[in-house]
Write a structure and sequence with these properties.
The complex is a heterodimer of chains A (302) and B (220). Chain A is mainly α and 302 residues long. Chain A has helices at residues 8-18, 22-34, 38-61, 73-82, 90-107, 123-135, 139-159, 164-167, 169-187, 192-204, 222-241, 250-262, 280-290, and one strand at residues 111-113. The longest helix of chain A is centred in the N-terminal third of the chain and has 24 residues, at 38-61. Chain B folds into two domains: 12-142, D-3-phosphoglycerate dehydrogenase, domain 3 (60s Ribosomal Protein L30, Chain: A, 2-Layer Sandwich); 148-218, ACT domain (Alpha-Beta Plaits, 2-Layer Sandwich), CATH 3.30.70. Chain B has helices at residues 19-36, 49-58, 60-68, 81-87, 159-169, 200-207; strands at 13-15, 42-48, 91-96, 105-112, 117-126, 129-135, 138-142, 148-154, 174-181, 187-194, 212-218. In chain B, the strands form two sheets. In chain B, strands 3-2-4-5-6-7 form a six-stranded mixed beta sheet. A four-stranded antiparallel beta sheet of chain B has the order 9-10-8-11, with helices on both faces. In chain B, strand 9 (174-181) and strand 10 form a beta hairpin. Chain B is globular and about 50 Å long. The chains are: A mainly alpha (302), B alpha+beta (220). The interface between A and B is large, with 69 and 48 residues.
Chain lengths: 302, 220
Amino acid sequence: MDVLFSNVKELVEVAEKEQQPISEIMIRQEMLLTRRSREDIVAQMENNLAVMESSVEEGLKGVHSSSGLTGGDAVLIQNYMKTGKSLSGELLLDAVSKAVATNEVNAAMGLICATPTAGAAGIVPGTLFAVKNKLNPTHEQMVNYLFTTGAFGFIVANNASISGAAGGCQAETGSAASMAAAAIVEMAGGTPQQSAEAFSIVMKNMLGLVCDPVAGLVEVPCVKRNAMGAAKALVGADMALAGVVSVIPTDEVIEAMHKIGQSMPSALRETAKGGLAATPTGKALEAKIFGKDKESRDTVTK
Amino acid sequence: MKFRSVFEIIGPVMIGPSSSHTAGAARIGLVARDLFGRQPEWATIHLYGSFAETYKGHGTDVAIIGGLLGYDTFDERIRTAFEDAERLGMSFEFIAEVEEMDHPNTAKLVIGDKEGVMELIGISIGGGTMEVIELNGFPLRLSGHFPALLVVHDDRAGVIANVSNAIAAQDMNIAHMEVGRKEKGKMALMVIEVDQVVNDELIEELRALPNVTQVSTLAN
C-alpha cells in the first residue's frame, strides 16, 4: 500500500513540498492507511487529549501506587515551583511535574493514554500542558501536537522499536521525549526540518538508556525518567529553534537506537534482572513487595 | 509495516501501568474471547520471557483475565478481574515458563468449556499493539488491524470457494487471506481479513456451509 512517508527524510520532504505542518501529513497518512474520515480521526485524537488532561489533573491532586514506591512527587514539584525559587525555570518544572503526575496515575493503575507506551506516557502530555501556558495554542493546535508526536513515533515503531522489552528505555522514554521535542518545535512555529533536528538532538541523548524497573514495576525509575524526558524535550526543542542542527541525520539516529537495543542484554530489557532492579535496594524492595520466593508472589490487584 | 495507525502510537487509552504488559495483554485476552465466541469456563495461561519475569508487577495477569471477561484496555474493571472471574465462574491458572520464545512478550492461552477448547499464542509487540501468531496449532499472523473471519473447516474440495462466494455475495472485499492445514484431508483453517465489519447474517451463512465446523470473527 502506498504511504506518504516511512522515514523522517520522507516526512520532512512531503511536509515541505505540500507546505503543510507534519501534523497534517500524519492525518493524511492515517486517512490513507485506515480509510477513516478526517472527522473520525480528529475526534479520536481529541478524546485522547481529554484523557491526558484528566490524568494530569488527577496526578496533580496527589496519587500513590499500591506498592508505595511512587506517588506525591508531582505535588512536591508544583509547590516548589510556585515559591518562585526554581533554578531551571517555571515552564520546565511545570512540564516535569505534569509528566510525573501522569506517570504516578499510571503506576496507580489509573486511566492514561499511552504515548507511545504507558511507561513513557508522561512526557508528551507533560510538555504539552506546560508549553500551552506560554504559547496559548488553539484547541486544534493542541490536537495537532499529538499528531506530530505520532508521526515521529510511527516511524520509530516501524523502523526501530517502542518497546522496553525489545529496545530498552531509550525506545520508550527516549522515543517519547524526542517525539515531544519535535511537536514543541511545530507548535512554536519552527519548520518541519527543525522538528526533525529537535528529535535527533534529544534521541542522541537517550541512546543506551536501559529498562531496569525495580521489582518489574513501572515505577522506579520510570517516573523520574519521564520527568527528565520532559526536560530534555524542552531543551532540545529550544536548541533546534535556535538553529542548532544534528550532525547525524534523524533516520540514522533512529537506526542507531535500534541497533543499540538489539545488542542490549536481556537483563537490561524489562526483565527486572539488571541495572537498578539488581541493586541491593532494588532487590530488597522486590522481596518486600512480592515476598522472597518469586513463585509464591502475591498478586497486586488494587 | 507492523504499526499502521497513529493511534497505536498515541494510544491506546488504557488502565496502567504498562502498554505492552497490561494493555497488550488485555487485547490478547480479548481477542481470544472473541475468537472463542463466549466466556470460557477455564483458562490456563503460559507466560514467556519478560511476561514471565514481570507479569505480576505489570498486572499482565489481571489484564489477560480481564480480556477473557470481555474488558477492553480502558475498562476500569480490569483491576478487579480476578474477583470478577470467580464470580462469573471462570477458573484460571498462570504458569511462568522458562523456555525462550522468539518474542520477549509471549503468552499462550489455553481456554475452554464443556463445548470445546481453544489454544492461542499471542505476542505483545509494544505500545499496546499485539499479534496472534498461532491458533489451535496453526501458525498465522493476525494483527487485528482489519476485521477478520476465522473459519475452521474440513480439508475438502470446494470449501474455500463456498466461503469466498458467500463473502462476495455480501459485496465484501477480502484484504488478505491465508489457508493452512495440519494434515492433508483433516482440519484446516482459513484466516480472512476484510475491509468491512462482518455482519451476523454472513456468519450464520458460513456456519451453515458443508464441512465448516467453526466460524469466529474479530472486530477491528
